[in-house]
């Protein structure tokens, strides 16, 4: 009996699905990202040059907060964090009277990205989400799981404990 957990399924590699497919699912049901609380409303998609990356703007009517979520197939990276922060800043300038938060979502959050996100989270309302895909019959479902970020001293961050 193997004690190694199964490798998480990837949208492109395991199911032949791309970022356009994921963006359409998020537009139809933004709750799959797992950011914030309540039922977010989809506002718009920001397309990027690379086909495996995009951002979405969500609005949470219950608390009046807009969320900028930078989404990427595969592993998160430092560039994704930088893009997310730039989109967040752009939206804050565009609508200064509205509260904005930022998130990154990817199929895997590597340790170096989690460490950087933890440092950023000390100053910016940042959420980090890992996307999980599962297939049942002909249906592929995706859902976001919040990631517990390491605290700067190596333990869990206070916001996540």
Description:
The chain contains four helices and six strands; from the N terminus they run H-H-E-E-E-H-E-H-E-E. By secondary structure, the protein is α/β, with parallel strands linked by helices. Strands 1-2-3-4-5-6 form a six-stranded mixed β-sheet, sandwiched between helices. The longest helix has 17 residues. The C terminus is likely disordered.
Supply database-style keywords:
161 residues, disordered C terminus, 4 helices, 6 strands, alpha/beta
Rg computed from alpha carbons, rounded to a whole number of angstroms = 16 Å
Count of DSSP H/I helices: 4
Q: Order of helices and strands, N to C?
A: HHEEEHEHEE
Low-pLDDT windows of residues: 157-161
Q: What average pLDDT do the residues reach?
A: 90
What characteristic shape results from the CA principal axes?
A: globular
Largest sheet: 6 strands, mixed
The percentage of residues in β strands lies in 25-35%
Q: What is the count of β-strands? A: 6
Sheet/helix structural class: alpha/beta
């Amino acid at each position: 009996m193997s004690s190694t957990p199964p490798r998480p399924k990837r949208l492109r590699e395991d199911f032949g699905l791309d970022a356009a497919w994921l963006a359409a699912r998020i537009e139809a049901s933004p709750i799959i990202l797992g950011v914030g609380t309540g039922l977010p409303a989809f506002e718009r998609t920001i397309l990027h040059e690379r086909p495996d990356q995009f951002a979405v703007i969500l609005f949470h009517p219950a608390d009046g907060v807009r969320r900028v979520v930078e989404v990427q197939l595969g592993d998160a990276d430092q560039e994704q964090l930088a893009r997310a922060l730039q989109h967040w800043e752009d939206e804050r300038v565009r609508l200064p009277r509205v509260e904005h938060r930022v998130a990154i979502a990817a199929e895997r959050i590597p340790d170096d990205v989690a460490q950087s996100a933890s440092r950023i989270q000390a100053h910016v309302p940042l959420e980090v989400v890992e996307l999980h895909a599962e297939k049942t019959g002909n249906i592929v479902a995706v859902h976001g799981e919040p990631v517990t970020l390491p605290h700067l001293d190596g333990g869990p961050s206070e916001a996540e404990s």
